[in-house]
């Protein structure tokens, strides 16, 4: 089990029971539900079990709040190079040296040092493929595909299990769809690219994931996104009557969130490179003024809080696998008129705290789930 973020809600984060040759590494464990008793439970006869480079912090259970819990564990058990704070007791079984009760309680800092969830990025294999498909309304060429391993943590009443599913991610070229009506012309504008910005991995480029995500995860950090569409086919802003950005919400599947996700759209303050943009930099050697991206709001205020568009996904709502729409007409018209350079959209949540959500990106194979920018124009007589 590796590279997982685990919130302990019942019993234990992960249980290792009567196992051999098990490694639990580079995960982050936390939890404030007041239930359970440890982050990692070691139980009965164990052979060559290695627990290392995990972060265990701010966990409050019911009967105990241990980092490494012992339930009749015996055998060859190594517990080393883990970082723990605000858990008690720290380690009940296993040999090794760990960092216990450090003064630095910043998860981000420890991730940067090689501990916990986000300090590893796993890619299992890659392959190249070419697919051509043509219809009356769209032409698409898939130019590359990468097989990655997505690790999911499923929490049961007793323990957390880990499953790995191979996912093929397809990077599409421009897709253009046209639907004419009697009074207006509506165009699904070709997408150029979208990128994730991840605070916990501030210098990593995330260009080809099948999802884009926003919001905040306690103990992990914030997530933002950049997305840009090709507007070069439009030359008359006054002819545009409406522009709608549609995002397909699918995650977290079947799970409510502690806080509402108030989705907001801003104008990136400068051009950014899809191949090089990160949380810290907009291009190689070119830092953002503010980590996480520089933007202007609708009042042209730098880092302002008046978004061009916003919608609210209530914390009690669960993803229903459909598009959610944001009206970005004003910003699109300013791009088309030339008042501003087309730098795309910066997407974030207002509070970025316990409001994490994810949408499908332009790299999802199913084109009916990709981000869409629909632009309506006055019909030409």
UniProtKB/TrEMBL annotation:
It holds the Pfam family Disaggr_repeat. Residues 194-375 form the Disaggregatase-related domain. InterPro entries: Disaggr-rel_dom (IPR010671), Pectin_lyase_fold/virulence (IPR011050). This is Disaggregatase-related domain-containing protein. It comes from Methanosarcina siciliae C2J.
């Amino acid at each position: 089990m590796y590279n997982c973020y685990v919130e302990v809600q019942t019993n234990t984060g992960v249980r290792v029971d009567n196992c051999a040759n098990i490694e639990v590494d580079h995960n982050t464990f936390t939890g404030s539900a007041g239930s359970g008793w440890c982050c990692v439970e070691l139980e009965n006869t164990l052979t060559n079990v290695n627990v290392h480079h995990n972060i265990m912090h701010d966990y409050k259970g019911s009967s105990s709040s241990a980092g490494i819990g012992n339930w009749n564990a015996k055998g060859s058990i190594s517990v080393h190079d883990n970082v723990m704070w605000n858990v008690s007791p720290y380690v009940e079984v296993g040999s090794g040296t760990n960092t216990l009760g450090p003064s630095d309680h910043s998860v981000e800092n420890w991730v940067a040092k090689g501990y916990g969830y986000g300090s590893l990025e796993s890619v299992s294999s890659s392959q190249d493929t070419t697919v051509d498909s043509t219809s009356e309304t769209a032409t698409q060429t898939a130019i590359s595909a990468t097989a990655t391993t997505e690790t999911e943590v499923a929490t049961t009443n007793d323990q957390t299990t880990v499953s790995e599913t191979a996912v093929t991610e397809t990077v599409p070229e421009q897709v253009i769809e046209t639907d004419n009506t009697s009074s207006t012309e509506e165009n699904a504008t070709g997408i150029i690219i979208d990128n994730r910005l991840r605070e916990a991995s501030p210098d990593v480029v995330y260009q080809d994931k099948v999802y884009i995500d926003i919001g905040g995860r306690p103990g992990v950090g914030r997530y933002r996104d950049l997305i840009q569409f090709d507007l070069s086919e439009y030359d008359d802003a006054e002819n545009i009557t409406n522009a709608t950005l549609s995002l397909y919400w699918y995650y977290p599947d079947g799970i409510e969130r502690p806080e509402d996700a108030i989705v907001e759209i801003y104008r990136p303050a400068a051009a950014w490179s899809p191949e090089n943009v990160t949380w810290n930099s907009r291009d190689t050697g070119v830092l953002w003024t503010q980590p996480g991206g520089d933007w202007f709001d609708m009042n042209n205020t730098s880092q302002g809080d008046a978004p061009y568009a916003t919608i609210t996904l209530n914390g009690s709502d669960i993803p229903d696998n459909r598009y959610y729409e944001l009206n970005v007409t004003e910003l699109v018209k300013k791009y088309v008129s030339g008042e501003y350079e087309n730098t795309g959209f910066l997407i974030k949540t207002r509070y970025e705290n316990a409001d994490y959500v994810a949408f499908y990106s332009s790299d999802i194979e199913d084109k009916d789930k990709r981000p869409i920018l629909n632009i309506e124009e006055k019909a030409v007589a």
